Amino acid sequence: MDFAELRETNRARSENPRGFNLPLTAWSPAEWGCALAGEVGELCNLLKKLLRGDNPSIEDISCEIGDVAIYLDLLSSRLDLKLEDCIVLSFNRKSAVIGVSSQL
Fold this sequence. Notes:
It contains four helices and no strands.
């Protein structure tokens, strides 16, 4: 799987009447951002449990990381941005700021 495949499949599932039945334009970028924040919160809750020794499953943590990526892709799609372009821009900009030659 690559970012382009995620984008195509993710959007199709979101808009499918048998899926979420939610066209990307049905929500504003702020609403997609709030959905993303909710997923990040669920991930953080599992990490908090891990820290205090409650032992959430690695599978559950993995799914929450996946949910974050899925909603991040939907948000970037709603803004007509490619997730991979956003990552490259951010990574390269931060590398320049901290003086590291690593670039994508």
